[in-house]
Amino acid sequence: MGAQRWQATEFEGRVEVPEEKLWQGDCSLILHDVQFGDVGLYESFMVVDRARNKRRVFIQSVQLSVHDHTSEESLRVGETLDLKLHTPQAKKVVFQGRNSTEMTVLWMRGEEEVNSGRLKEVKGFVVLKGLKIDDCGTYTVLDSHGLPVSTVHLTVEAYQVDETQKFHEIQGKQALIGKSTYNRSSSLLMLFVLLFSPLIQHLL
């Protein structure tokens, strides 16, 4: 390393070799924000500089494969979907409805006209609030080359009242009906006593 450094244009700002680890014999190269274009074989060598003789000593090779993020989400009506962008290279979010073959652009980085809909970018996420049944489908985050960074298959379910809550609601209604019936019976009894008390006293 020393003062001599070189980075290929496509890797600028994304690679590092920690110098403090070099003195421990660790020549690892760290690649950040991995992209699909990074797929391939990586080989590392050490240059041995001896008097009048330089030669490369092979250290190791790594075959890198890159895959997109894939997940399934099941949310309820009214909840919020958080789509993680994963990388600053994410440029677009497209949507395909469950029963549709068409792709709709929902969000584009830096395009205010496109982003005037329900999706908002918040700290590395694209957020969709107030989910509806029609929001069921596939959401795909694409990079600048149109390659998928992540794919989310979303299911939106209608809100269902908990069975325990239903039971308590029924009990409450029954209690109100019973109380109402008791009050009506008490009122009829009082009316009967008031009407027939003079007649009973006269007979006695």
UniProtKB/TrEMBL annotation:
Alphabetized InterPro entries for the sequence: Ig-like_fold
Upper taxonomic lineage: Eukaryota, Metazoa, Chordata, Craniata, Vertebrata
Protein name, entry field: VHSV-induced protein
Gene3D superfamilies tied to this protein: Immunoglobulins (2.60.40.10)
